[in-house]
């Protein structure tokens, strides 16, 4: 009976599309990608290159040599005050990182339409240790960029169901 219930649980998890975090099923047609950074931080490009190369996707520097363009149109940080101290000084912020991207063929066909990825973190400001708070904020922003890169790759893996590869693209 235990084996039956365990088998039923495994079947239900796999049938609903459950995947472990970090495991993306990148489509085989997605190769030879150039990352184009427009109004975004350059280190996001390095993070995206690392993510894509980890899945054995070749990333080229020259967009004219690529089959696909991953265009990062912009990224923005936004702070929202979530908590105020008794002296009306902000004590806690919600950091929001927004990345706008799209994936197109070099011929212009849109594969993944313009999409946004949002990553949020909460930061507490200690007025006694301002330098430490600044360092913590910088660390959180680096984490947020890395998570945004992971989310973008996950979105690219979902494009496989909506895209039909033409023989000339391969």
UniProtKB/TrEMBL annotation:
GO cellular component: cell outer membrane; transporter complex
GO biological process: Gram-negative-bacterium-type cell outer membrane assembly; lipopolysaccharide transport
Membrane topology, as annotated: Lipid-anchor
Primary subcellular site in the record, as a coarse category: membrane
UniProt-listed InterPro entries: LPS_assembly_LptE
UniProt record similarity statement: Belongs to the LptE lipoprotein family.
Subunit record text: Component of the lipopolysaccharide transport and assembly complex. Interacts with LptD.
Function summary: Together with LptD, is involved in the assembly of lipopolysaccharide (LPS) at the surface of the outer membrane. Required for the proper assembly of LptD. Binds LPS and may serve as the LPS recognition site at the outer membrane.
Protein's recorded name: LPS-assembly lipoprotein LptE
Species classification: Bacteria, Pseudomonadati, Pseudomonadota, Gammaproteobacteria, Legionellales
């Amino acid at each position: 009976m235990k084996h039956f219930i365990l088998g039923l649980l495994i079947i239900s998890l796999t049938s609903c599309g459950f995947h472990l975090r970090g495991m993306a099923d990148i489509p085989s047609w997605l190769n030879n990608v150039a990352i184009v950074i427009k109004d975004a931080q350059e280190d996001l490009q390095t993070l995206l290159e690392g993510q894509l190369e980890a899945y054995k996707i070749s990333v080229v520097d020259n967009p004219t040599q690529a089959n696909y363009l991953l265009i990062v149109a912009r990224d923005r940080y936004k702070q929202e005050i979530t908590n105020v101290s008794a002296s009306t000084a902000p004590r806690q912020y919600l950091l929001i990182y927004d990345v706008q991207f799209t994936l197109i063929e070099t011929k212009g066909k849109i594969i993944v339409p313009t999409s946004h990825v949002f990553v949020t973190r909460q930061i507490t400001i200690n007025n006694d240790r301002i330098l430490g708070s600044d360092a913590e904020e910088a660390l959180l922003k680096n984490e947020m960029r890395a998570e945004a890169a992971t989310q973008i790759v996950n979105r690219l893996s979902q494009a496989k169901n909506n895209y039909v590869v033409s023989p000339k693209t391969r």
